[in-house]
Amino acid sequence: MTARLFAALVAALSLGQAAAAPDLILHHARIYTVDANRSTAEAIAISGDRIARVGRNAEILALRGSATRVIDLAGATIVPGLQDAHGHFTGLGASMQSIDLRGTTSYEQVVGLVRQRVARARAGEWIVGRGWDQNDWPDKQWPTHDLLSAAAPDNPVYLTRVDGHAGLANRRAMELAGVTEATADPAGGRLIREKGSQPSGVLIDTAQALVSSKIPAVSTEQLENQIWLADLEMRRLGVTMVHDAGTDSRTVDAYKRLIDAGRLKTRLYVMLRGPLATLQQAFEKGPIADYGNHRLAVRAIKVVADGALGSRGAAMLEPYSDEPGTTGLLTTPPDEVYAQTLAASKAGFQTAIHAIGDRANRLVMDIFERVQREVPGARALRMRNEHAQILDRTEIPRFASLNVIASMQPAHATSDMPWVPARIGRERMEEGAYVWRTLMTAGATIASGSDFPVELPNPMLGFYAAITRQDPAGQPRSGWMPAERMSRDEALASFTRNAAFAAHAETRLGTLEVGKLADLVVLSKDIMRVAPREILTTTVRMTIVGGEMVYISAP
């Protein structure tokens, strides 16, 4: 929508209010509009799927008509619909169908959960799970397959690590995949081996495909059920839009079917992922800016430059402090990263690149700069650096100078902080680890997300982490590298206005202003004023998407 058209719409709505009463009024609330002036209000009127007026109680209540639904919120808080700027939508649904290993405190506990699933599984059925993290166990070394193989001798088992960049296979799964002592490490991947050269069962980054490619693809019915489960969870958590960080055309087609049927309520901003030959088909068709009345946009691609820090796959300029023999992995060849970015930019698609280690981040920023020189208009596409976790100081000013969005996940910092000093050393940590404040001071725009199902999808956890840099137990008491905290205004903007900007949706979403789509969330507590720990127990009372109440909490 152009600025002129948007202004005309606002004017039309304003003039039309005298003739047409709003459909819904919410009043007696504390409303954070997140507009440019950080305005607050008491009431909001909605007509159809748009915001008709925001203001004081008396002003808004004067607009009601005989058919207007009026709800007294008794002082509750309203914020714009929250966005997750980096999540894996079907991945969340899939994780809700598999074994949840998040929070396990030992390998033995993981094996016990697998044993329970095997007891009711069919012979030969694949057992899958996700969420284990050896950093949370007493023995922080990589596990080996032996206990898992004993628990499931006849069923293939594959358990994805919490970050999605490593997995553990049992003996039966490796047999089906043909993984043996003779199997070489693939480009961009690594097999962890026991003494000698026998595979331990742990597969890093691209090596995961050796086993995961053997897992049967989900049926259309199961895929749609995964989408449905994720959609219900988003409504419950007040997340009205998700930037789906890497999916395929089959999933996009499923999204369209569910939107057409009126079943999918969460707005989706999709990043396509795949080899260049596959992406080229989408490039030839061009971006989808608006499907189903702004329910779906497909105008970005996702590339993965390196692995993850927790599995020592993040590509570093210098060796890992706790494993000097490795500097991590570039999971996509740099020439391929460049080729995809170039082709996407020529086709008018935004490029979003996963980069965690400082070496990967330098590579990504170099490629963005090169493509912006070569493709007129590429800068306006708002290229995105997904994660930007460990930065060399020289990269920080380049975000603003290249108009690159820093798409970051606040909860990653507080999840990783117990082991980051050992992993990369204190000097590198203090120079450029999860440096939100430093990036903002340098002029960068930060769009916040969770990276679910890597982290839990509840945006309250990310908001809390952003303003405290503490874990849910309130540790460390002064915050981890506290100078990098966000203010509450900045954190809320990162989950709303900034996220909308990162998705080219700032004229329609992200703030509560007249003429914009009526996406908003009613919260049980005022997260802008309560004690930080109370944010963690804040719940959603109501989620509204396009004027429709898609979630109402039980009394």
Structural commentary:
- Among the domains are: 1-80 and 510-555, Urease, subunit C, domain 1 (Roll), CATH 2.30.40.10; 93-212, Roll (Diaminopimelate Epimerase, Chain A, domain 1), CATH 3.10.310.
- The chain contains 21 helices and 25 strands.
- Helices cover 33% and strands 22% of the residues.
- Strands 8, 15, 16, 17, 18, 19, 20, 21 and 22 form a nine-stranded mixed beta sheet that branches. Strands 3-2-7-23-24-25 form a six-stranded mixed beta sheet, with helices on one face.
- By secondary structure, it is an alpha/beta fold.
The amount of beta strand, in percent, is 15-25%
Helix content bin: 25-40%
Which CATH top level class of the domain at 1-80 and 510-555 fits? Mainly Beta
Give me the number of helical elements: 21
Average predicted local confidence, pLDDT: 95
Low-confidence stretches: 14-18
Main sheet specs: 9 strands, mixed
Class by helix and strand content? alpha/beta
Question: Would you identify the CATH H-level superfamily of the domain at 1-80 and 510-555?
Answer: Urease, subunit C, domain 1
Assign the CATH topology of the domain at 1-80 and 510-555: Urease, subunit C, domain 1
